[in-house]
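Researcher: Please translate sequence to structure tokens.
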Amino acid sequence: MRLRNIPGSREVIAENEYVVHEEQSHRGQWKEVFGNDHPIRVEIGMGKGSFLMEMARRNPEINFLGIEKYSSVLLRAIEKHEEAPELTNLKFIRMDAEEIEAVFAPGEIDYIYLNFSDPWPKDRHAKRRLTSDRFLARYEKLLAPEGGVTFKTDNRDLFEFSVEMAKECGWNLQVVTRDLHGSEFAEGNIMTEYERKFSELGNKICMMRIFPPEKRENQEV
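Model: Translation complete:
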């Protein structure tokens, strides 16, 4: 059974306390949702949520929001969160990334994570890639003054496309590595489900850490 087709997943999500509903109504007021003024970091396409849960566990002083399009994938993240109710700094949203500007106000997001995003391999679908110029322009508007983006993938073609897009759009490339696990940047790296799977298959993991024009290049992440 494909995860995105699990019967009843939408109903479970609609009633779950960890999922933020009517997300557009919270635009510009996400700190009120968490009840504090901590920075807000977002993972777009969070999958089953293991990466974001570990981030929330290690960084209780930061609020984390996971965006996932598919209900039945989000359901898996909900099930994991229910086993760790102490992570009050973690919430989920079921939405399409295309709507991100309707959900967050300019400067409201502290940092964005893109992990093993859909490569959309056909050229005619390039604009749908989460590292396309269209999405980079959106991120630039939504990120706080010192905010940036970390992108990881095992898809070399997608990575080269992403690096070139960042350069063309004038972003600062702080880190670019085509072998994350064999580099100095492996220390402290939190692996996603896909990252672990692909690494075990022998695939090299690519990673870039980028900041929009005029953002600080030495920002700690």
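Researcher: Any highlights?
Model: The first strand starts at residue 40 and ends at 44.
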